[in-house]
Amino acid sequence: MNTPRRSLLLIEDDSTAIDLARCAMVESFPEIDLAVVGGGDAALNWMGSSVENGMAPDIILMNLNLPKLEGLAVLRKLRIQANTRNIPVVAYSAEYSQADVLMAYQVGANSFLPKPADLEQFKELFRERLAYWIQEYQREEVSAAEDDAVR
């Protein structure tokens, strides 16, 4: 059985964080395609186009502190739309309060963590947080394939 490639959308405006995430992704999950958009408006535009073309990401990793349209607003819009509401979103922020964390979960984040500051922290994020969601998709595919085989 040929499994399709997975994809991750990184929503981040900090070029250093983008470079670190790319390096960590290559080392941790070279089989996953990484797309990067730099802000909230750009993310929603990218998602609209990708969903229309059947290319929605499997996972979204997003900074909540974005220019123009902040991350919580992006998350709200993703959760309202039927074709994006079930995509796992791992949110992070460099500066946050407990209220910010609670709000992220209330709006629809699947996970929240402090913004990774270096390559090792990004690799840890990918190994621990994103691996969980990747495994979830793999289990769902196996289950669906087994259901199809039974029919």
Apparent shape: globular
State Rg.
15 Å
Name the strands of the widest sheet in spatial order.
2-1-3-4-5
The major beta sheet can be summarized as: 5 strands, parallel
The CATH architecture would be 3-Layer(aba) Sandwich
**Given this structure, which CATH class is correct?**
Alpha Beta
**CATH topology group:** Rossmann fold
Helix-strand pattern, N to C? EHEHEHEHEH
How many individual domains? 1
Q: Please report the total strand number as a whole number.
A: 5
What is the mean predicted local confidence, pLDDT? 85
Task: Please give the share of residues in helix.
Answer: 40-55%
Report, as a whole number of angstroms, the end-to-end distance.
18 Å
Topology (SSEs and partners):
Elements: E1 6-11, H1 15-28, E2 32-37, H2 40-52, E3 59-63, H3 71-80, E4 89-93, H4 98-107, E5 111-114, H5 119-150
Parallel strand pairs: 1-2, 1-3, 3-4, 4-5
